[in-house]
Amino acid sequence: MKVTPRRKRSDSAAAAVAASQAAALGPLPPPECVRLRKGDMPYWNAIVLARARDTWTEPDLILAGQMARAQADIERLNGDIERIGPIITAANGQPIISAEVKLQELLTRRVMALARMLHVHAEATIGKSEDGAKALATERAARLQDDDDLIPRLRQVA
To answer: Which of 36, 56, 65, 142 has the CB geometry, 3.0–4.6 Å to 40, for a possible disulfide?
Structure first.
């Protein structure tokens, strides 16, 4: 029977040291088999920083490369859609959805599927929606508190 090693506790001193070391190294580089364009790199970095460095496997990194390319392509398509519009006129004079919008939709679905597979979606990285709602409520309450003299001073500076 194969025994898998136990994962380190995330609240231990060893985990804190490992996290500091991983943070100092910055984002993981793509594997050699993943070809990314210059415009893909901001997306790559955001994706690989969404999980702890030691949780990435080679197959995960390959999928992360596909996700980064798709996100960069979506952004390029957004510019095209802004320029030409989402609706174009067909040869017969009928309005139709542009090919760019259809491709953008396809790539968006791909990104969403890859995010779920890689566990880099909001619930995996931030937590359940009720936790986010609690954090938002706390932040809103902090914005509304004017008794702290720091907030009025910051408003004067702005």
So the answer is: 36
Largest pairwise CA distance in the chain: 69
**Cα(60)–Cα(124) distance, integer angstroms:** 15
Distances (CA, A) of 44 to 24, 40, 66, 120, 154: 17, 6, 9, 12, 35
Placement of tokens 């390319």 in the chain: 69
Q: What CA–CA distance (Å, rounded) separates 134 from 140?
A: 10
- C-alpha to C-alpha distance for 3 and 55, rounded to whole angstroms: 18
Q: Which structure tokens are listed for 109? A: 């679905």
Contact at 8 Å (CB) between 55 and 23? Answer: no
| DSSP code of residue 55 | G
Q: Report the C-alpha gap between 6 and 9 in whole angstroms.
A: 9
